[in-house]
């Protein structure tokens, strides 16, 4: 095996953990293992792309949803065929770890190495975002958000406070409600259409986003389709009244809330409507978002995949 760990160097806590991870691998006689720390934003894309081109057997993201997002994009940007992609894994050391929450992963290196040695994987779906204006393409493993969520991500990226991720996200959501002008959006799918003023749309492969918000409880990683939740012309009071339901995965009954399934959607807007994926800001609509069924092999516990 040739295993590459892509380590998010922005996480200060990992500085102390990295020598422990390396020592543990040595104790387990795993010799062909490299730990490569990131040094700038999107460096994980470059590392994963190069490791894939070099023929490594496994690429493991050590960090959060953003690190995993970059690793996925690096692998799919490589110039090799899909059946030669390395197995992908995650050691969750991020601030939210929403994808790990869906899969049921801990940050135990011992458990991860057991998955590697037993070859315990599942073939799971990915999502693809193509922006219409320049055909720029991005891939995601968890969730794409359209509307308010993209603004919140931009605010969080510029934030320097030391609050907990959950509280930080909540604060920026509330601030967003106060300042955010809902966008006029058209959404087209093969089987349904939606148009109106949009607060937030979630196009989900996984179940959680935004630090344990479960807006799409029916989402599954292996069913070849997205679960879509559309929150239209809602007020801040609507959000606060339904916050518990969003945290516990209960669907909201409200005339401005809709749920759909789809394999592909086209999002159009005459306003500046932002799009993010896996907690990373991508750009502005219009864009086409489609599912890539069973696109990768992912290291995960042997249990039914949601």
UniProtKB/TrEMBL annotation:
<dbReference type="InterPro" id="IPR001206">
    <property type="entry name" value="Diacylglycerol_kinase_cat_dom"/>
</dbReference>
<keyword id="KW-0443">Lipid metabolism</keyword>
<protein>
    <submittedName>
        <fullName>Diacylglycerol/lipid kinase family protein</fullName>
        <ecNumber>2.7.1.-</ecNumber>
    </submittedName>
</protein>
<keyword id="KW-0594">Phospholipid biosynthesis</keyword>
<keyword id="KW-1208">Phospholipid metabolism</keyword>
<dbReference type="Pfam" id="PF00781">
    <property type="entry name" value="DAGK_cat"/>
</dbReference>
<dbReference type="InterPro" id="IPR050187">
    <property type="entry name" value="Lipid_Phosphate_FormReg"/>
</dbReference>
<keyword id="KW-0444">Lipid biosynthesis</keyword>
<dbReference type="InterPro" id="IPR045540">
    <property type="entry name" value="YegS/DAGK_C"/>
</dbReference>
<keyword id="KW-0479">Metal-binding</keyword>
<feature type="domain" description="DAGKc">
    <location>
        <begin position="1"/>
        <end position="134"/>
    </location>
</feature>
<keyword id="KW-0067">ATP-binding</keyword>
<dbReference type="InterPro" id="IPR005218">
    <property type="entry name" value="Diacylglycerol/lipid_kinase"/>
</dbReference>
<keyword id="KW-0547">Nucleotide-binding</keyword>
<dbReference type="Pfam" id="PF19279">
    <property type="entry name" value="YegS_C"/>
</dbReference>
<keyword id="KW-0460">Magnesium</keyword>
<dbReference type="InterPro" id="IPR017438">
    <property type="entry name" value="ATP-NAD_kinase_N"/>
</dbReference>
<keyword id="KW-0808">Transferase</keyword>
<keyword id="KW-0418">Kinase</keyword>
<dbReference type="InterPro" id="IPR016064">
    <property type="entry name" value="NAD/diacylglycerol_kinase_sf"/>
</dbReference>
<dbReference type="GO" id="GO:0016301">
    <property type="term" value="F:kinase activity"/>
</dbReference>
